[in-house]
Amino acid sequence: MSVSRISALGAIALSGALALSACASENNGATPGAGSTAGGSTAAGDCFSGDLKAEGSSAQKNAIDEAIKAYQTNCADANIDYQPTGSGAGIKQFIAKQVDFAGSDSALKTEPKDGKIEADDAKASCGSDAWNLPMVTGPIAIAYNVKGVDKLVLDAEVAAKIFDGKITTWNDPAIAALNKGVTLPSTPIKVFFRSDESGTTENFTKYLKAAAPDAWSYDTGKKWTGKGEGKEKSAGVATAVKGQDGGITYVELSYAQQNQLPMAQIDTGSGPVELTAESAGKTIATAKQTGTGNNLALKIDYATKEAGAYPIVLVTYEIVCSKYADAETGKKVKSFLKSFASDSVQKGLEAKGYAPLPAEVATKVQTAVDAIS
Amino acid sequence: MSTATDRRVPDDQVAPGEPVTPPGGRPGRDALSEMSHPHRGRMAKDVVARIVMWAAFALAMVPLVWILGTVIGKGFHMLTTATWWTGNQRNINSDDFGGGARHAIEGTLTMVGFTALIAVPIGILTAVYLVEYGRGRLAKAISFTVDILSGVPSIVAALFIYAVWVTTFGLGRSGFAAALALVLLMIPVVVRSTEEMLKLVPNELREAAYALGVPKWVTVVKVVLRTAFSGIVTGVLLGIARVMGETAPLLILAPYTKNFQRDLFNGNFPTLPMMINQDRGDFALSTAAERMWGAALTLIILVLLLNVIGRVIAHFGSVKK
Amino acid sequence: MSTVTGVSAADQAPGPDGKQPLQGDRASTGRFGDRLFGGAATVSGVVVIALVSLIAVFLVVQAVPALMNNSESFFTSRVWAPGGEKPAFGILEFLWTTVTASTIAMLVAVPVGVAVALFITQYAPTWMRRPAAGLVDLLAAVPSIVYGLWGLIAFAPVFKPVQGWIESALGWFPLFAPTGISGGTIFFIGIVLAIMVLPIVTALSREVFDQTPIAHKEGALALGATQWEMIRTAVLPFGRPGVISASMLALGRALGETIAVTFLVSALSDGSPWTWSLFNGGETFASKIANNAAEFSNPGKTGAYIAAGLVLFVLTFVVNSIARVVIERRKAFTE
């Protein structure tokens, strides 16, 4: 019945968990990295040891995960974390100095938006120029689920009308005209969009606006302005389409592949183009550089009519300081991105649903990475 | 004595043939007065009530069995893999099988432990104040604010902490920052449930203690809290269960890492909800889905373990009746 | 509860066994201990007030500038476009979704939860009570993110046909009119929330029912009451304030539940027509904020979301205040 006994019991209750984990840590300290068995030969003196933090676009998550794995396999003392929370979050945390570099589906904006200029804020935060380094290109698929339809061709105008709710059934004459010989059911079309603000939405609407300006009258942006039913994140829209006959959405290639969803071919005017790494790469190759020097912001020609080029792609950038206030951080970023931009890592990304950087761009990126300090 | 006698009002008043005023003070329905001459309607009602209660319990078991069945069915075999309890997720990407959850288990326990360390004393003491000490304006104000706090969604609590911790103080995101947000979520659960339990402690006990010359604080600690101990533990466990699975504050305040990280105050911090969240994006891949369900099952098991520990403490700490 | 008074009087009273030294000793530590303990309790309470005040200040400071720039009516507009040069946002849709889904959750969870608590404390055979209580606690042990996963992957596909059936059978009734939303409808969210808050209602109600004085129960039974009558006249009235408290806690949880709702809900596109149907989509305050928190890129936009959070804050408070009044009134009768 003593006070001390009760408080002792309470203390046990509260500290039990702590003690448990504290013990566990000690035991475990003896065998660091028990889960990482993929040991490779430790590379040359290029490895850093310690933590490197990054955050941003979820579209590049699978790519950067691969790059991290490749780097960490060689460098056992390096810990690199990437939070796939979204491009805007990445840039925000980068400016707030919470992460060492950001991943983004669009380059830092140089014109004022909501009273701020991203590029200037980033420059102020870095104390030096902030660079956009295109690192990965990800095709965006128009994924659908219609019973009995394995092959579907759309063009920009029809796609815009579908996503704007103007075309509401699958056997609409406009769709049928592009798909001769395919029996289309009268199922209603259910459009699913990303309910969170996303770079994928931004790039997809940029495409609709550029390739079908008459049919898509809305502004482009991270927030969806068309019609349909909103689901959270890429996984959300992909799952929704999978579970809904008549569903259609826009989603990164890797999610369409994971969910085994058929993807529409896009007719740019020179015949239907299937989505492959190669066809997406052709569009990227036509992109123009808008930044100067080592700032490699790219402008994609969404309205491309080049034969065999799949037009709906996004370029995801790593946003870095050109000169880090902390030289040590600069070394870490440089070391990791150098590995990320290397040919061997880039080649491996094709299997993950990404298109390779065109050789010319890749060389420029490598030069730029070398200039980071 | 007053409360106790008053609560017995209905019993006292029941004289044969007299209508009864139930404790609600509403005009007595005919329920008790009918008792002297039972008829079939009353019995039927009783049977219906019995059936309804059984049915309600059965109904409540449906989601339980379903959820546990799903989680165990899809996640159990992950828990039996060799590295699950010892390893971390370093170099395990969404399409790689397995890896360990130990980093996240340690992280979650540490974070929730810290949260409880801060929230439980504040919560219980606040409830003690409200029931045993509080009178007048301050008590009303506290009661009022606890109500408001219980209405703060986790995401808003997280944004608040972010604004203070990161934007104002310029500190880095960390496990500790997330724990602070969890404290805000846990306090009202602990206060409200403890308060209810303290109110149920009969005043005779307090008065008897005073009559014996026991100081008030000793009365509160030894008699009141002691009597309500089991209920308080239930409340604390509800609070822990609530914050353990919270994900939104972690998304904002405690970035995930696949590596071991024991420093709650610096850098990224691994937790089970974030581990689940990491694999959720790719759950169309069987490797990621298995890991996600495995982590979910692990999280449930952790909450349950804490529950069992709490029950044992409640059992040994409570007054035998 | 104004019964606890007269500490010093108790301290000064002689001990029943007349052991003066001990009594005196205790009295003096008692006074010091009392100041310490009472002080700690007061400080805790004040800390809570301070925290909530800080949150309120934070919310208001962030929300007010955004509200000043708002070009739509904040309470009656369904537009949500807080970014850009000319922000326009209104919360009507979130308010409707949040309140409706929570109402459905409470309509299901409170009766079932109380019935389960009664079952455990009054009806279940003695051997079954502890395991039954344990099972319900198990439901409380399931974290919200797991409810979200289960809802998304296991429950939604099963629920879809049920919803389709209700739509076709009762679609003439405006609340059940078909809307074309496939999955995460308000009704569905309400049911998932009900399952999530059920253990909260049950766990606390159970504790309170358990405390019903045996004299009350036996008194009723001795008078020939059936078990149900005994519950109605002794257990329920005694437990009502506790049940209300539990319900309020549950409601707070339902109104503010974030991650599970974010997983499950179907958002509406801009300009979708207004409907009273429970089978429409829509986001709750918490899910809307959580879903977009990553993109809070400037103060004006953040402020708009915070303003929405503020409404939720006030909403919860109003509901709780009503509950307080109900409890206070009951107290007036019992004391």
Write a structural description.
The complex is a heterotrimer of chains A (373), B (321) and C (335). Chain A has 373 residues and is an alpha/beta fold. Chain A folds into two domains: 3-138 and 317-370, 3-Layer(aba) Sandwich (D-Maltodextrin-Binding Protein, domain 2); 139-282, D-Maltodextrin-Binding Protein, domain 2 (3-Layer(aba) Sandwich), CATH 3.40.190.10. Chain A is 39% helix and 18% strand. Chain A has an eight-stranded mixed sheet with strand order 2-1-3-13-4-8-6-7. Chain A has a three-stranded mixed sheet with strand order 5-9-10. A two-stranded antiparallel sheet of chain A has the order 11-12. In chain A, α5 (156-163) crosses α7 and α11 (327-341) runs antiparallel to α13. Chain A starts with a helix and ends with a helix. Mean pLDDT of chain A is 84; it is low at 1-44. Helices cover 69% and strands 0% of the residues of chain B. Chain B has a single domain (81-317), classed as MetI-like (MetI-like fold, Orthogonal Bundle), CATH 1.10.3720.10. Chain B has helices at residues 2-7, 9-13, 40-79, 102-133, 136-150, 154-168, 175-200, 203-211, 216-227, 229-244, 248-253, 272-280, 286-317. In chain B, α3 crosses α13 (286-317), α6 (154-168) crosses α7 (175-200) and α8 (203-211) packs antiparallel against α9. Chain B starts with a helix and ends with a helix. With 321 residues, chain B is an all-alpha fold. With 335 residues, chain C is mainly α. Chain C has eleven helices and three strands; from the N terminus they run ααββαααααααβαα. Chain C has a two-stranded antiparallel sheet. In chain C, β1 (80-81) and β2 (88-89) form a beta hairpin. The longest helix of chain C has 50 residues, at 20-69. Chain C is globular and about 75 Å long. The interface between B and C is large, with 132 and 138 residues. β7 (229-231) of chain A pairs antiparallel with β3 of chain C.
